[in-house]
Amino acid sequence: MENTLKQLSIFIENKSGTLIKVLELFSKAKIQIIASTIADTQDYGIFRVLCSSPCEAYTILKEHGINVQLTDVLAIAIEDEPGHAALAISALSETGVNILYMYSFLWQGRGVLVMRTDESDKAMEVIEEKEMVLLGEDDFKI
Amino acid sequence: MKKILPDDNSPFFDEKMETMTRAEIEALQLERLQATVQHCMNSPFYRSRFEEIGLKPEDIKSLDDIRRIPFTTKQDLRDTYPFGMASVPLRECTRLHSSSGTTGTPTVILHTQKDLEEWAAQVARNLWMVGLRPDDVFQNSSGYGMFTGGLGFQYGAERLGMLTIPAAAGNSLRQIKFITDFGTTALHAVPSYVTRLYEVMQSAGIDPRRDTKLKVLAIGAEPHSEEQRRRIEDMMGVKAYNSFGMSEMCGPGVGFECQEQNGLHFWEDYYIVEIVDPETLEPVPDGEVGELVLTSLCREAMPLLRYRTRDLTRVLGRTCPCGRNHVRIDRMRGRSDDMMVLRGVNIFPIQIEKILMTFPELASNYLITLTTDEDNDNMTVEVELEELFTDDFRRLQGLTNRIQRALKDEILLTPHVKLLPKGTLPVSEGKAVRVVDKRTVYQ
């Protein structure tokens, strides 16, 4: 899919020590993490990572027997001002697009909303219509 | 038909049989063993087995000669399914019980009318032994149907002349209503269910000591510790007696605790009891733990010789202050195979494995952990994800739910299913450890 970003979704046990094993693999391969988030249940968690070279990271994690998936996510750039996240989200929600998960961070002076939606085609339409700025892999080259 | 019952004041249901000396027991056992082996020649299975090793019924000259007879196993029952083990023509059989067959071929146990009457008499003997009389009201909260705990106790309690309520398992509020409305004095259930009944009584504001006439509980069919029994007794304010049975030997009635509560009397006029080392199959001395091996002495339809029960236990003694010299057997201490008994349900790890293998999302490693939580047995099944096929929690939870439902359909209880990343579970060298039993009963 054009204009989408590859995110790594890593399945980890909800137990101390499991995260560091994954982080050490990133560290050894000198892959920089741009943003990450962990969502958990009682038994397991999903560690979601945006990084400098997602395909390379995917291969390395796979080789080490880690449960990992490359997931397409949308990264919307917004002004780093109050109210801009609300603007972006309300445009999506008006068309009935649901957000499965979202996290945000600052990148080069702009806010970035990273999300996975239940209908990405529909979400793309809204983004184009409203002339929102979608970030791709090239925008995160370090 | 009026059955003759002893006087209410008699401590014995069948005084002659119950109070035999050891010498009398052994003489009777030899006589009955010889007759049983002779009778087994009518069974296609035993006839060919005896012919294979050149054993003739007249070779059994002493009780020790029982060791010349090969063991019978559950696999033999499966191999001869359904009727290959019978020692009488089917027209003489009046009842069939069967195991659920979840581990493959089911097993079938046949009964003649005489077998059923003897079985009822055994159960009646047990219930009389713990003080129950025809004035008592007996509620059987055990599963009915193919499970022998239902009809076995039903016929035995009726044989004793009690008003017998076939309440069957489940629906706790209805069970409690029966107990209070009908003046139930004795209840049979699996121990974890008694605990459950007590919880429901508590929330309904019913105090078993004040609001019921209960005085005796018969508990069995699932392993439980002495502490668990004492807790049940404290909760309900009654005596709880341990019951042992297995469908292969008829059902409940094979062994039962007397009022001393110091081991279960196994009825040696009905069975020969051996305890053997499960590896060498040699007998172990009294007091040492080994596998329980039983030979039925009175069964017509399907006598079994030297049947390996896979239950581990030991002989506690052969005398008792109660006046019965029938061997006292300790509560069951585990299994010599991998069968698990949870809340009265027999489960083999292979059943779990079979279900897990139908999920392509899962890797092949798994681990079953059994725990005790407030006297309830619980099972956790840990499984590994083969590939992360989604990063959507709802779909992962959906997978967990589907696994849980499929397991419940197979093993009849709902385990906790824990999804883990691949490679998390320990990989053992050699035979994989599939079951970790942390239940207090085995501590």
Describe this structure in words.
The complex is a heterodimer of chains A (142) and B (443). Chain A is α+β, with helices and mostly antiparallel strands and 142 residues long. Chain A contains four helices and seven strands. In chain A, strand 2 and strand 3 form a beta hairpin. Chain B has two domains: 322 residues, Rossmann fold (3-Layer(aba) Sandwich), CATH 3.40.50; 102 residues, ANL, C-terminal domain (GMP Synthetase, Chain A, domain 3, 2-Layer Sandwich). In chain B, helix 12 links the parallel strand 18 and strand 19. The radius of gyration of chain B is 23 Å and the shape is globular. The model of chain B has no long low-confidence stretch (mean pLDDT 92). Classes of the chains: A alpha+beta (142), B alpha/beta (443).
Short summary of the structure?
The complex is a heterodimer of chains A (142) and B (443). Helices cover 30% and strands 39% of the residues of chain A.
Please describe the structure with a list of short key phrases separated by commas or semicolons.
heterodimer, A: 142 residues, alpha+beta, VC0802-like, 2 domains, seven-stranded antiparallel beta sheet, 4 helices, 7 strands, 30% helix, globular, B: 443 residues, alpha/beta, Rossmann fold, GMP Synthetase, Chain A, domain 3, nine-stranded mixed beta sheet, four-stranded mixed beta sheet, 12 helices, 24% strand
